[in-house]
Amino acid sequence: MRVSTGLLNRRLFGKAALAAAALGLLIGISPQARASDNTLVLAAASMKDSLEEVAKLYERNTGKKVALSFAASSALAKQIEQQAPADIFISADLDWMDYLAKRDLIKPESRSNLVGNRLVLIAPKADASPITVEKGNFPLLQRIGNSRLATGEPNSVPVGKYAKAALTHLGIWEEVEPKLVRAESVRSALTFVSRGEALMGIVYETDAKVDKGVAVIGTFPADSHPAIIYPIARTATSKAPDAQAFLDFVKSPAAFDVFRKYGFSAAPAPQG
Question: What is the mean pLDDT of the chain?
Fold first, then answer.
């Protein structure tokens, strides 16, 4: 089941969807922010609440302003490829950072792994019976019935790619695929479930924590999908004078305390 952006905006997300779409198109960054020396950060949708708090902490400590825009990592990477103004990119997977690196669109010396996350199965809080998530014993199809499973578009959106890998590992991808709601970002998938438009969803643990309308009913084994790693880097065209200072702050212990509060974990260092 493919869901168009227009349909999501009209039927499901209201102001939240319009804001997300605007951010994905970089409309969320004000003209004043673009014209100033403010650091412009494009970050995975799942970073929204935590990174906003980190940015406020940075601004209180330094007096420097930061402009933030959130959308699916795939959409943001494509925006950077199309020369959108940006100083820092935070992806929800390594693939989209690699995509930019191969095109010389990031400063390689600035790249590092920022945080990690976990993949979880959620349901509306009113229907939050736990489910076993293990190979050979995962009654997902029986529980879904005639309803739908929401996650990110598995061909591009990181959470959807992780979900596909996990469901493939667990041996049920082909049966589950026809029941997918292929959302444009993890936050869109979260909203489908929170509003009862889908019976279940696959999102990150951190997203489930910020929506009181859902509950985690299962956690995918770590070995069922690639490690969930959020890399950070400055873009090749970064010009803001304080961009490096903010990147350094995002990697500081004070910032990690905020990320950990929202459910993020430490990420391994890059290999090689």
Answer: 88
